[in-house]
C-alpha cells in the first residue's frame, strides 16, 4: 500500500482533508491525487458530511505536480496511466469544497485550489503557475480556470512569466475569497464551512452545480438549468421546512431531504 498522503478529520458536518507530503511541499504525485479523489468521493457519499475543507501545511498548500515524477513521463503515459482521471473525479464532487491555503499554491497546487469552490488564504500565501520555468505550461486547468477567475490579460501575465502573486493580489483579482492572518486560515475556512453546513444540503449542492454551469453554458442554457434545479427543490422536505420556519418566525432545521 502507498504511504498515506491525505489525512481526514471530521468537524461536525465538515470534513477537513489535509495534503501530507511535507518533505516535498505537498507535491502532487499520482498516489496523492488518487487518495485525494478516493477520500473526496467517500465524503461526497457520506450524509454526515456537508462541506469539505482542503488544506496543506504551513509552508505549502501544494508546490505543484511532482516534478520528479513528471520528469520521467512520456506523452502516452498521460493516457495509459491515466494521469488526469483523478482530477476529473475531483471536478465532479457535488458538495462545496473550500481551499484553505497557507504558503505556496503553485502550478498543479494552484490548479487544485481552483478546482475548489472558494479559497481562504493566509496573508503570506503565494499563488502562481510557474510551469513555463520548467519548459511546459499548465495542464490541470490553469489556462482555463485562471483566465475565468482573473481575466485574460492577468492570466497571460501570470502564465507566461511564471511570476507568483500574493494572497492580497489574488483577492483583488478575484481568485481568492478572503485573506486572513496565516494562523487563522484553517479556523476561517472551517467557520465558513460550518456556516454553509447549516444550510439545506440539497439546495447547496444544486446551487454549486448551477454556478459552475455559468462557466460552461450559454446564458439561455444556464438559466434553464437554474430553473429546473429551482423547481426540483420544491420536492424537498427542506424547502417546506425553510418556508414554514420563516412563516412561524423560528430557525429552520434542515435534514438534507
Ligand atoms: N515537485 C517535486 N519536489 C518538489 C516540488 C515539486 N513541485 N516543489 C518542491 N519540491 C521539493 C524540493 O525538491 C525540495 O526537496 P529536497 O529537500 O529533497 O531538495 C523540497 O521540496 C523543498 O523545496 P525547496 O528546497 O525548493 O524549498 P524552497 O523554500 O527553497 O522553495 C519553492 C520553494 C519556490 C516552492 C520551490 O520548491 C519550487 O520552485 N518548487 C517547484 C514549483 C513548480 O515549479 N511547480 C510547478 C510544477 S509543474 C506542474 O505543476 C504541472 C501541473 C500540470 C499537471 C498537474 C498534475 C498534478
SSE diagram, text form:
Layout: E1 6-11, E2 14-19, H1 30-45, E3 51-55, E4 60-62, H2 67-71, H3 75-80, H4 85-91, E5 97-101, E6 104-106, H5 108-115, E7 118-122, E8 126-128, H6 142-150, H7 152-161, E9 165-166, H8 167-173, E10 178-180, H9 185-197, H10 201-216, H11 219-233, H12 237-247
Parallel strand pairs: 2-3, 3-5, 4-6, 5-7, 6-8, 7-10
Antiparallel strand pairs: 1-2, 8-9
Helix pairs in contact: 1-4, 6-7, 10-11
The structure holds octanoyl-coenzyme A.
Pfam family, one: ECH_1
Keywords: Lyase
Protein name: Enoyl-CoA hydratase-related protein
Low-confidence stretches: none
Strand tally, please?
Answer: 10
What's the end-to-end separation, in Å? Answer: 38 Å
The helix content, as a percent range, equals: 40-55%
What's the assembly state of these chains? single chain
Q: Please count the helical segments.
A: 12
- Major beta-sheet overview: 6 strands, mixed
Query: Per DSSP, what share of the residues sits in E-state strands of 2 or more residues?
Result: 15-25%
Mean pLDDT: 97
Order of helices and strands: EEHEEHHHEEHEEHHEHEHHHH
Ligands in the model, by name, code or SMILES, are: octanoyl-coenzyme A
Category by helix and strand content: alpha/beta
Write down the overall geometry: globular
Which strand order does the major sheet show? 1-2-3-5-7-10
Over the alpha carbons, how many angstroms does the gyration radius reach? 19 Å
Amino acid at each position: 500500500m502507498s504511504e498515506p498522503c491525505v489525512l481526514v478529520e471530521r468537524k461536525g458536518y465538515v470534513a477537513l482533508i489535509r495534503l501530507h507530503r511535507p518533505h516535498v511541499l505537498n507535491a502532487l504525485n499520482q498516489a496523492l491525487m488518487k487518495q485525494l479523489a478516493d477520500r473526496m468521493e467517500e465524503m461526497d457519499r457520506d450524509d454526515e458530511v456537508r462541506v469539505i475543507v482542503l488544506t496543506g501545511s504551513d509552508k505549502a498548500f501544494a508546490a505543484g505536480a511532482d516534478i520528479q515524477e513528471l520528469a520521467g513521463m512520456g506523452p502516452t503515459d498521460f493516457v495509459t496511466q491515466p494521469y488526469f482521471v483523478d482530477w476529473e473525479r475531483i471536478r465532479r464532487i457535488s458538495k462545496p469544497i473550500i481551499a484553505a491555503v497557507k504558503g505556496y499554491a503553485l502550478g498543479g497546487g494552484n490548479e487544485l485550489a481552483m478546482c475548489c469552490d472558494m479559497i481562504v488564504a493566509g496573508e503570506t500565501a503565494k499563488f502562481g503557475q510557474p510551469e513555463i520555468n520548467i519548459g511546459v505550461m499548465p495542464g490541470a486547468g490553469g489556462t482555463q480556470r485562471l483566465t475565468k477567475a482573473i481575466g485574460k490579460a492577468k492570466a497571460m501575465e501570470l502564465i507566461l512569466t511564471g511570476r507568483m502573486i500574493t494572497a492580497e493580489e489574488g483577492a483583488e483579482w478575484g481568485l481568492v475569497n478572503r485573506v486572513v492572518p496565516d494562523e487563522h486560515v484553517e479556523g476561517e475556512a472551517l467557520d465558513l464551512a460550518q456556516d454553509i453546513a447549516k444550510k439545506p444540503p440539497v439546495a447547496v449542492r444544486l446551487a454549486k452545480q448551477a454556478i459552475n454551469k455559468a462557466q460552461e453554458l450559454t446564458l439561455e442554457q444556464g438559466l434553464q438549468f437554474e430553473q429546473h434545479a429551482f423547481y426540483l427543490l420544491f420536492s424537498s422536505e427542506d424547502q417546506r421546512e425553510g418556508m414554514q420556519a420563516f412563516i412561524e418566525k423560528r430557525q429552520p432545521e434542515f435534514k438534507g431531504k
